[in-house]
Write a structure and sequence with these properties.
46% of the residues lie in helices and 13% in strands. By secondary structure, it is an alpha+beta fold. It folds into two domains: 3-89, 2-Layer Sandwich (Phosphorylase Kinase, domain 1), CATH 3.30.200.20; 96-323, Aminoglycoside phosphotransferase (APH), C-terminal lobe (Aminoglycoside 3'-phosphotransferase, Chain: A, domain 2), CATH 3.90.1200. The strands form three sheets. It has a five-stranded antiparallel beta sheet with strand order 1-2-3-5-4, with helices on one face. A two-stranded antiparallel ribbon has the order 6-9. Helix 4 (109-121) packs parallel to helix 10 (228-244) and helix 7 packs across helix 11 (254-281). The longest helix is centred in the C-terminal third of the chain and has 28 residues, at 254-281. It starts with a helix and ends in a 5-residue tail after the last helix.
């Protein structure tokens, strides 16, 4: 962050409070947004800094209003769209990723799944204004994989058969029930809360899209790996809850849902490989490269089960990038 931007943020923050405050960095994410924690006595708040020329606050504000009646999200206490600042309630510093160091997954994930079901069940009444996860957007995301992972990171020729694989993945996504999708529903964006767990953050990219997308984000998380048996148990748990809420019809078998889930995961993981490499080369955020290996692991676990992905399976096997 440039000093001038920090000075501007500090001045704006002081205008929101009548008492003395301390401002400390809270976190960064994979975008141009920055977060600061404001302290006074034993209380704290969060300021989101979203440079207007880089990030719009409009989507965050809109989605926050949609989600507020449903699940625990930060409360917007003050805003300045021209400057690009939001003052938010503080959901704490204990993300699921941190909490999982000392708590078992079975004490956390059922709450996350319950919140996910609640959000999805509200789709019909709450979807106003959310963009659709269109085939064009899905393809645009997939193209990050050849551009940044294959060509830029590994300096390899982009295979011609990729378009056919992309068609399979896009068809799978559009064939599913379409619901509210957070789009980054994973352990870094879920906050462990004593009450109304979890707190949910980083939801500004929400869309109407495939029902399996957020579950894949949660259970095949690039930052935290569930044992396969536990992952399957949580998948079954979600499936039964979704059927009870009539998000998935009784005619849909678990085998069909498993295919939705697996192929949706392939789409997301190919996108993530591209994004992590772009963050390194374009934005100088090289620490994301450490998470490439786990993302590749998920792909190599899933793709062999699907003959329609055989070229991708062979491609990943031939290059052995997972061993780097």
């Amino acid at each position: 962050m440039h000093d001038s931007r920090l000075q501007q943020l500090t001045q704006w923050a002081k205008q929101q409070f009548t008492h003395a405050i301390d401002i400390l960095p809270a976190s960064n994410d994979a975008s141009f947004r920055r977060y600061f924690r404001v302290h006074h006595a034993d209380k704290s708040w969060i300021i989101m800094d979203a440079p207007p020329e880089k990030e719009s606050l409009t989507a965050f504000i809109h989605v926050a209003k949609l989600l507020k009646p449903l699940v625990q999200v930060p409360v917007i206490l003050a805003q300045d769209l021209k400057l690009g600042f939001l003052l938010l309630s503080d959901l704490g510093q204990q993300s699921y990723l941190n909490a999982l160091q000392s708590l078992p997954a079975e004490s956390l994930y059922p709450d996350a799944i319950a919140s996910l079901i609640t959000i999805q069940a509200a789709t019909k009444t709450q979807q106003n204004g959310l963009p659709h996860y269109s085939p064009a957007l899905l393809r645009q995301e997939l193209l990050l994989f050849p551009e940044w992972f294959i060509a830029r990171h590994h300096q390899q020729v982009i295979p011609e058969w990729l378009d056919k694989i992309f068609d399979v993945l896009i068809d799978n996504a559009t064939a599913q029930p379409q619901v509210i999708v957070h789009r980054d529903f994973h352990s870094r964006n879920l906050m462990y809360m004593a009450n109304n767990n979890p707190g949910i953050i980083d939801f500004q990219d929400a869309v109407i899209g495939p029902i399996s997308y957020d579950l894949v984000s949660l259970l095949r998380d690039s930052y935290y790996v569930l044992p396969r048996q536990q992952l399957t148990q949580f998948c079954h748990h979600y499936f039964e809850q979704a059927k009870q809420q009539k998000l998935i019809t009784q005619a849909i078998s678990f085998a069909t849902f498993q295919r939705w889930f697996d192929l949706m995961g392939v789409q997301r993981q190919l996108k993530i490989l591209g994004i992590f490499c772009r963050l390194h080369y374009r934005d100088g955020k090289s620490h994301y490269l450490h998470d490439l290996k786990q993302t590749l692991c998920y792909l190599q676990q899933v793709t062999p089960a699907y003959p329609e992905l055989k070229e991708l399976t062979q491609f990943l096997t031939d290059h052995q990038w997972i061993d780097e």
